[in-house]
């Protein structure tokens, strides 16, 4: 089987999609869409959905690494977006107690950036008498925008 190149500027559906968006410019696919995403349930330790993820490592409470199937072009020239959702308390961000602050997620600053993976943390918030801490939640999300290698 020979491999070749297909060149085109717009992808268009043959009418199977309902609504108004029936075509997309290829520049959007290349430059404007996520190159990776994951929805990880740390309580049940299962990936509920992903794109361009080969594996996920749960290092410890609230500490995760997601590994790309297709690596990124650069370790730092990319955008990492993280978020979390606590289904344990009907979506409340107060996981430990009503007085505790919300949850926070971020790309881990204690791990060097890489073209092969991203390490991210999930924290519960602090209050006047208690420090925040890393937290395992049902919904932990990470997406990567940038150029693939």
Any overview of this molecule?
The protein is 4% helix and 42% strand. With 149 residues, it is mainly beta. It has one domain. Strand 3 (36-41) and strand 4 form a beta hairpin. The longest helix has 6 residues, at 26-31. The protein starts with 9 loop residues before the first strand and ends with a strand.
Main sheet record: 5 strands, antiparallel
Question: Spans of 5+ residues with little confidence (pLDDT < 50)?
Answer: none
Order of helical and strand elements = EEHEEEEEEEEE
Can you give the mean pLDDT? Answer: 81
Structural class: mainly beta
Beta strands, count: 11
Helix content: under 10%
| Number of helices, where a helix is a run of at least 4 consecutive DSSP H or I residues | 1
Kindly provide the radius of gyration, computed on alpha-carbon positions and rounded to a whole number of angstroms: 19 Å
Integer tally of domains: 1
Q: In percent, how much strand structure appears in the residues?
A: 35-45%
N- to C-terminal separation?
24 Å
Q: What's the shape?
A: elongated
């Amino acid at each position: 089987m020979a491999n070749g190149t297909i060149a085109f500027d717009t992808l268009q559906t043959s009418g199977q999609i309902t609504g108004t968006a029936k075509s997309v410019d290829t520049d959007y696919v290349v430059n404007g869409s996520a190159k990776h995403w994951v929805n990880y349930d740390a309580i049940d330790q299962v990936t509920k959905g992903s794109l361009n993820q080969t594996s996920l490592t749960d290092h410890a409470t609230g500490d995760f690494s997601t590994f790309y199937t297709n690596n990124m072009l650069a370790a730092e020239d990319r955008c990492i977006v993280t978020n979390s959702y606590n289904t344990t308390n009907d979506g409340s961000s107060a996981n430990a107690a009503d007085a505790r602050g919300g949850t926070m997620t971020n790309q881990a600053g204690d791990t060097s950036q890489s073209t092969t993976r991203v390490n991210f943390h999930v924290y519960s918030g602090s209050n006047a008498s208690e420090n925040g801490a890393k937290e395992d939640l049902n919904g932990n999300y990470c997406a990567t925008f940038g150029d693939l290698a």
